[in-house]
Each structure stands twice: as C-alpha cells, then as structure tokens.
Amino acid sequence: xxxxxxxxxxxxxxxxxxxxxxxxxxxxxxxxxxxxxxxxxxxxxxxxxxxxxxxxxxxxxxxxxxxxxxxxxxxxxxxxxxxxxxxxxxxxxxxxxxxxxxxxxxxxxxxxxxxxxxxxxxxxxxxxxxxxxxxxxxxxxxxxxxxxxxxxxxxxxxxxxxxxxxxxxxxxxxxxxxxxxxxxxxxxxxxxxxxxxxxxxxxxxxxxxxxxxxxxxxxxxxxxxxxxxxxxxxxxxxxxxxxxxxxxxxxxxxxxxxxxxxxxxxxxxxxxxxxxxxxxxxxxxxxxxxxxxxxxxxxxxxxxxxxxxxxxxxx
Length: 315
Description:
Elements: E1 8-14, H1 21-28, E2 36-43, H2 49-60, E3 64-69, H3 75-85, E4 90-94, E5 98-100, H4 104-111, E6 117-125, E7 132-134, E8 137-139, E9 145-147, E10 162-163, E11 171-175, H5 176-181, H6 195-205, E12 209-220, H7 231-248, H8 251-269, H9 275-287, H10 289-303
Parallel strand pairs: 1-2, 1-4, 2-3, 6-12
Antiparallel strand pairs: 4-11, 5-12, 6-7, 6-11, 8-9, 10-12
Helix pairs in contact: 1-2, 7-9, 7-10
C-alpha cells in the first residue's frame, strides 16, 4: 500500500531579502509535489522584503503565511518561530536566496521513506547551475566545516546517496518529530552559522541518519545577509565554531584532538585569514564560557545519548 505524501512545511526567513525572494518564490510555484505550505518569517527587515514577498506569492498562486518579527533575532530563533506555525510532517528550512527545481520536493521526501532518516540535504549549485557548492558536509577535529564537491564542475561524481555528518542550513529538510526531540535550532549561535551542524549532530545522537540526496537539486546564491569573507563573517563563523566544539565535544577530545588540530591549522593558515576576527572569537568564547557550559548540560539532558565525534583530522 502506497504511503500518503507527507505535508512539507517550507520555512523561509527573510532579512533584507528583496533582491532574491522573487525568483525563490516563483521557483516554489513550479514544484510538482503536493501537499506543501510556505511560511515566511521576516526577521526585522528594513527593506521591502515583506511587501514584495506578498506580491510575488499572490501573483504565483502560492498558499502562504507571512509573519513579521520586530527585530532580527537570528537564523535559529526565526526558523523555530516559523516551525511552530507550521503543520508539516517534514520541515524544509530554505534560504531566501535559493531556487528549487520542479522535482526537488519529490526527491527530498523520497529520501525520508527510510524510517531511520531524520535529516536530508540537497545537492546545491552556484548560480551557473554547473559548479557544485555542497554535496553534504563533514567536520574537522577543530570544528571547521567542509563541503563535499565545493567548486567542482558537476560531472556526475556526487550522484550516489550517502550518509553525511551534516547538511547545510540553506536547504535542510528534517522530520518534525526529530526537530522537536533534538531541541530545535539553538539560538545561542545567533545571528548565524553552525545551527545546521548542531541540529544534525543532535539528530545523529538520537540515532537518526543525516542523508545527502543528490537528485534533490537547489541553486544557492550564498551569503546574502552577511558578506562572505568579510571580517564580520570570519568573526561569526569562528565564534560559533568554537562554541560548537565547547558545547558538543568531550573534554578529552578537546584536549587530545581539537586543540592540537587548532594549533596546526593556525600554522597552515598563516595570514590567509584576518587575525583580528579570530582573536575576538576566542575572547568572546572565553567570556561566554559559563553560558556555553549551561547550554552543554541542558543539551546533554535533552538528548540523553552518548557524544558523537566523527570528525576528520587530516588537513
């Protein structure tokens, strides 16, 4: 007996997204899959994101809900708010600077037919639709996140579905039950970065698989709210990378693996990255350490499962 297609809740957080939201919503209108709902959460934009989103969604014939938050509370808080408004068995957290293909949801939901799959990610392309941006991800011993396939022209080398350490939050599909059991996204990473790695880790600690579904394709324009490789980007990325390690890695692993890797990475990196944002990231985590340890204990009580540290040590 064929299963009934689950309702998919597509949650899109807007933040000064007027440049990209029109092609995003118009692409959603081409989806062949049914049923799905679109939930738009404006995160304190000061442009016309909301007005434009309403107009485009109405013109495209999309059924949607839109809510405005008074201020930018960060990626996690806004997505959690949208999730609470949703009713789907599967939530797709989707960046506003993405465009889906007509069969994207069919391929994504197909990956959930295996009951132990908790999270599913897509093959992401740069705007030229030829160069891969993400085909699943893995984590280094010092928390550095890496993408399989990044910068490679797609010649079919990443066509095999596989389990991965994490998938990017630009297009992350997750079972409703898993999202709730994993504690939803952690607002402690506000405004952005590592919420996706964190929720995938919690899902895996609960015994669920994180799967890469190569036939589910998405175009991603990437880093439209925080300019990539700016000093602010480096600071936020490394601040949350360090917080992720302090929250999730065992103290033994931090001492034996993470710290030595961090030292090697600093030597190899040299002057390739601005040093001041990294120093600031270290100092911020030192000041915030008591709060991070509270979050660590709270998360351990919630998950109640052993730690997972399936990192990659080779630089």
